Amino acid sequence: MSQKPFVSAQEVAERAGVSRSAVSRTFTPGASVSPETRRRVVEAAEALGYHVNHLARGLMLNESGIVCLIVSDMGTPYRSSLIRAVTQQLQDAGKIAMLVNTDRSDGSVDLALRQAIRYRADASIILSGMPDKSITQLCLKNGQRLVLINRDDDQEGPLRINLDDAAAAGRLVTAFLRAGCRRLAFANSEAGTPSLMAREHGFVTAAKTMGVEVVVERYGSTGYESGRVLAQRLLTLSERPDAVFCATDLIACGFMDAARHQFSISIPDQLCVAGFDDIEQAAWSSYQLTTFGQPVEAIAREAVTWLGRDDAEDPSARNHSVRLNADLVWRSSIRGG
Amino acid sequence: MSQKPFVSAQEVAERAGVSRSAVSRTFTPGASVSPETRRRVVEAAEALGYHVNHLARGLMLNESGIVCLIVSDMGTPYRSSLIRAVTQQLQDAGKIAMLVNTDRSDGSVDLALRQAIRYRADASIILSGMPDKSITQLCLKNGQRLVLINRDDDQEGPLRINLDDAAAAGRLVTAFLRAGCRRLAFANSEAGTPSLMAREHGFVTAAKTMGVEVVVERYGSTGYESGRVLAQRLLTLSERPDAVFCATDLIACGFMDAARHQFSISIPDQLCVAGFDDIEQAAWSSYQLTTFGQPVEAIAREAVTWLGRDDAEDPSARNHSVRLNADLVWRSSIRGG
DNA sequence: TTGTAAGCGTTATCAA
DNA sequence: TTGATAACGCTTACAA
User: Fold this and answer.
1) How far is the CA of A304 from the C1' of C13 (A)?
2) InterPro entries annotated for this entry (chains A, B) (predicted)?
3) B8 secondary structure, DSSP code
4) Of chain A residues 154-213, which have a CB less than 8 A from chain B?
């Protein structure tokens, strides 16, 4: 069994008493084969446990059916939920996901990516906010279609799926003001990815429009610990903020925990807090965080349907950009509502 | 470019002025090729952007380098951290991960798995607790090596990686008793996977040995919401527990939140809580949960190194079982420590 | 050390 | 509708 565990179309053909092309046609959608032949082939295939070899198939068709998911921080709630959604929808579309972790930045990223290229993935979906241009170039150069999620890239070719980060952030200013807040703050990471910066910029300019200044603080990654540090900095200001918009939910959770447990601040009475992503934890009763929901299912759907379109018959598909809305999920970390 | 984006060994050979076998040998570890030839080949390959086609290579060698990760609930903190660890280590070992989501149980699991089989994955790693025997059979029958994580399966062939769930759970009884707790409870999910049941059983029997009864309650999935429901049930008992061991950290978080916010119970003063997995949230200051750490890196290492071993030269590798320790991570959800 | 040639399991083309 | 045949890009005897 370790010697030859796999059944080939040849063997199926022999058992069914037909040619191997008949077998191939049976498993090729839209090929012409008589009901009788098909029946016999299917029967033989079933009995032998035959599975079409996609390695060989991909070689022939120059189309592997493999889609490469390039992602950093995949242990993170938002990232992992996006991976889940995309993987599921790819499966539903008859494709399969390959996973490439880009956590380490020391060239091993490049190595892993080349590894994926060797498998002739039809496409790559870049879920990470990593602003590394060489990655996208490498994918494109190898004939892969490319989907960039939350990356404000203006290159030609890839599908770009973005959120209305800035607009969403702007809407939040109104909510804060309506709650009676006057001293607004923005707690950001230093990562500087386009979507993070768009949230900051959208928030700050909208506030300015309404005649309110915003204190902006940036620190570290987009995780929980950064939120704690940012709280240290913002909550010790002489003019302490009464409303803070955190660039991610994880930052918001860290911020809230520090505010409550270290500064004994009551939320939302003394401080209103909002986040972004709507991770599962945002709904936990310790946080009840008002936040913007990432439409992960919609993002996945856009990506997968675009990949399903044949770019030969649809030239517009070669260069496409989609903007989705992040809806505000109201919970009790902001007064009123 | 959309026509023929990939460079073949043939083209590299022509440019380097050698035969295509020379090219192949250059990229085959341990093949004999002169330094001069190698240099010219590498140079040409570099210039052309050549990448060995692993589809074709896998076809020849009957070894794809693909490892299939079969997993449900991959958006969950513990699952996603395990996926991250395994994916990274596979990359380091020169292999690549394929991701199969088994969330939907309605035959689409089977479909997705067959999809993976078609790619002739060398191995499958089952990360999910899904006790579906047909899946393991299907993998084995198709000549894949198999790794079962946290599945108490006694089949021959696969590598089985398990934790000392029962022993760990037993140790916790001592900790609870030392904290002065007398009314012990176990909050479990209804999922009934081997590791969950081992935790329950280990806890209950260890307590019995020490002359203490345990109230066991089971409900729903292994998630946060189940914890809330379990809290409703256990904290309304006439003899209210003063210590509860939750089968997973997510259950523990839900339990703690309900205990505090609905029952105004102070932790750890009035109630000691412990969990299992050591997810990131367990360290958050709202929880500070004492819990057992899943050794995800060690699990991943065991799996990947086993896959790297050639089973032909190491017959014992065909049937191997590993038991790892879950270490108790002390935080402040239990008195003392 | 090198090149030639066969074969891996497919699908597409083309007669029959 | 069917079967033979030629690719696809690779590795590996085998011969030079």
Assistant:
1) 32
2) HTH_LacI, LacI/GalR-like_sensor, Lambda_DNA-bd_dom_sf, Peripla_BP_I
3) P
4) none
Domain contains B275 = yes
The torsion of the CA quartet A280, A285, A286, A288, rounded to 10 degrees, works out to: 70
Which of B1, B71, B99 to mutate against chain A (most A CBs within 10 Å)?
B99
Name A244's bridge partners: A185, A273
DSSP output for B23-92: HHHHTSTT----HHHHHHHHHHHHHHT----HHHHHHHHT---EEEEEES-TTSHHHHHHHHHHHHHHHH
- Is the pTM higher than 0.90? The answer reads yes
> Between chains, do A55 and B53 touch, taking CB under 8 Å as contact?
no
Q: Do A119 and B69 touch (CB under 8 A)?
A: no
Rounded alpha-carbon distances, angstroms, from residue A279 to A293, A298, B71: 8, 16, 20
Query: Quick check: B147 and B125 in contact, CB under 8 A?
Result: yes
Tokens encoding B67: 């490892």
- Residue A287 with chain B: CB contacts under 8 Å: 286
Question: Is A334 a member of any domain?
Answer: no
CATH number at residue A125: 3.40.50.2300
The three-state secondary structure class of B3 is: coil
Q: Are residues B233 and B155 both part of a single domain? A: no
Do B179 and B289 sit in the same domain of this protein?
yes
Q: Check A286 against B69: CB less than 8 A apart.
A: no
Determine whether A320 is exposed, middle or buried from the number of CB atoms within 10 Å of its CB (0-12, 13-18, 19+): middle
Domain that holds residue B45: 9-52
Q: What is the mean pLDDT of each run of 10 residues along chain B (337 residues)?
A: 73 94 93 92 95 96 95 96 97 95 81 90 87 80 91 82 96 97 98 94 98 97 98 97 98 98 98 98 98 98 92 62 96 91
Number of domains in chain B: 3
Residue A237 lies in a domain: yes
Do residue B236 and residue B273 come from a single domain? yes
pLDDT of A312 strictly over 90: no
Residue B97 is nearest to which of A5, A49, A98, comparing CB atoms? A98
* Within a domain: B269: yes
Q: How many CA atoms lie within 13 A of B182 on its CB side?
A: 1
Nucleotides of D under 7 A from a protein CB: 1-5, 7-13
Are A200 and A125 in a shared domain?
no
| Co-location of A277 and A171 in the same domain | yes
Q: Is B277:B248 a contact under the CB 8 Å cutoff?
A: yes
Which tens digit of pLDDT belongs to each residue from A174-227?
A: 999 999 999 999 999 999 999 999 999 999 999 999 999 999 999 999 999 999
| Residues B33 and B140 reside in one and the same domain | no
Positions in chain C where some atom is under 7 Å from a protein CB: 1-5, 7-13
Please indicate, yes or no, whether residues B189 and B265 belong to a single structural domain of this protein. Answer: yes
> What does the pLDDT read at residue B302?
97
Taking the CA of residue B30 and the C1' sugar atom of nucleotide D12, their distance in angstroms comes to 13
